[in-house]
Amino acid sequence: MGRRYHLSKAVSKDQTNEILKELTERGDVKTASISDDGRYLHVDTIDGEFSVVMYSAVNICSRIANCELSFEGFDYTA
Fold first, then answer.
1. Beta-strand pair 29-34/2-7
2. Phi and psi of 73, rounded to 5°?
3. What highest taxon heads this organism's lineage (predicted)?
4. CA distance 33 to 53
């Protein structure tokens, strides 16, 4: 089961690609995607531990797109 996070602002396609590239390079991320409208990040981890992954995700999103993340809910489709 993954988790869904709301981005504080919509990210561009280039920002989406860069964010996802950095996230998926991590060894503990099973899947990561950003919605077509650029407003939601969907993440699932290999071991079910999200704290370290999301710490990185917050920093990556802040650095690349100058946006913040907030927990939206559980993603049963990830």
1. unpaired
2. 165, 180
3. Bacteria
4. 14
